[in-house]
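Lab notebook page, bench 4
Experiment: in silico fold of construct C2
Operator: M.H.
Input chain length: 147 residues
Purpose: comparison with the prior construct
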Amino acid sequence: MKFNCKKTLLAIAVSMGLGATFTANAGNEVVIGDIDDMSGLYADVIGQGGIEAVKMAISDFGPTVLGKKIVFLSADHQNKPDVGSSKFREWADKNELNMLLGGSNTGVSLAMAKVPGEKKSPLHRSRRSWLLTDQSRLQCLHRSLLL
């Protein structure tokens, strides 16, 4: 049996998002967002390739989970912390975001780390930029995992 990393990561991500916020989203959609650098310094590292990887994972996984349609949103944070955190807040308010991926920039990651506690939407970072200080690590763990 071949291990499929994309499917596994998507299943983990969806279950993390659903475990914390499934009841908060009463609609018929599971909304996953990705706010990353699409045009700046980190665009080659994650950028459009990361967006395509998530789209392919959703395609491989299937269009629904637990009877709900999977919706994927993406945005460029332009390496600006205020842009990343405000987009996260907007999606949580308007789109009933279940989970957010992203944070390729340390400043943006730290700004977005404050939002899950406010909006009850988990933030999953596959990068290590949030491991800056004990305080930021505890904030991210508390707000992202222990909602």
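Observations: The chain has one domain: 27-145. The CA atoms of residues 38 and 75 lie 8 Å apart.
Next step: discuss at group meeting.
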